[in-house]
Amino acid sequence: METAQNKQTILNFFEAFSEGNSEKALQYLDDTVIWQSMGIKGELPVSGKMDKNGIAELIKMVKAAIPKGLKLTPVGWTAEGDRVAAEFISHGILTNGREYNNPYHFLFLFMDKKIVYIKEYMDTLHVKSVFVD
Question: In Å, what is the CA distance from 132 to each residue of 20, 56, 57, 96?
């Protein structure tokens, strides 16, 4: 049951994230949560480590850039105990008309039914080409 509950927590978190509802999204996260978006130098606006406040800011930034929401679709799961690895595909249209469509691999760690750690792998070149360039 724990595995199914953890997967549902992730889906609920990303649903609120996609809606731009940071208050609702943050309820699925432990106060000590760290989101580490992998990038060698951590130079992109979304690479490096974020705490809960940083995640709230990320949600606001994504909502401002993609006002109709960033759709995140799960395509694969591997779960064991308090660890869930999940593959997602995103899709959204930015206010400037650019299409954002990125594949992700996330590792989530749970404690007391809340997410305490998120490790994210994505196509950072696509992020740069759509959001920065």
Answer: 20, 20, 17, 12
